[in-house]
Amino acid sequence: MPRNRSNTLTEAELRLMRLLWRCGECFVQDLVSAMPAEGRLAYNSVLTTIRILETKGYVEHRQEGRAFLYTAVVAEEDAQQSEVRNVISRFFGDSRERLMLALLGGGDVSLDELQALKRAIAEAEAAAGQKTRRKSK
């Protein structure tokens, strides 16, 4: 029985998506050429991976001559949010609090990172307060 297809990105898929996000529309050969020589995938591997990304809904293509031009249809920020939601769901029981505690629990968070987190929390609190006030009106 075939296994369910995952909508998360494998390492190879993420490498190609990063190239598409950076370069925009690309032929398969453009993707191969844009990869660093060390760890470069073969043309057929890139083609197979880009087709998988298209099946997953991350990429679409249009024909130009005899070749296909591929472009990302999922923004990088949307893919990041999807991956974070997946990690929170799978490992932290849908609890952002448990995720944050795990991140902070390692003890290797810098003061700059802590200050940035505090600012983000303050902004989230302000936004939540505005939503609450609008609902109560």
From TrEMBL:
GO terms for biological process: negative regulation of DNA-templated transcription. Keywords: DNA-binding, Transcription, Transcription regulation. The keyword Transcription applies. SUPFAM superfamilies: Winged helix' DNA-binding domain. GO terms for molecular function: DNA binding. The keyword DNA-binding applies. InterPro entries: BlaI_family, WH-like_DNA-bd_sf, WH_DNA-bd_sf. Belongs to the BlaI transcriptional regulatory family. This is Transcriptional repressor, CopY family. It comes from Terriglobus saanensis (strain ATCC BAA-1853 / DSM 23119 / SP1PR4). The lineage of its organism: Bacteria, Pseudomonadati, Acidobacteriota, Terriglobia, Terriglobales.
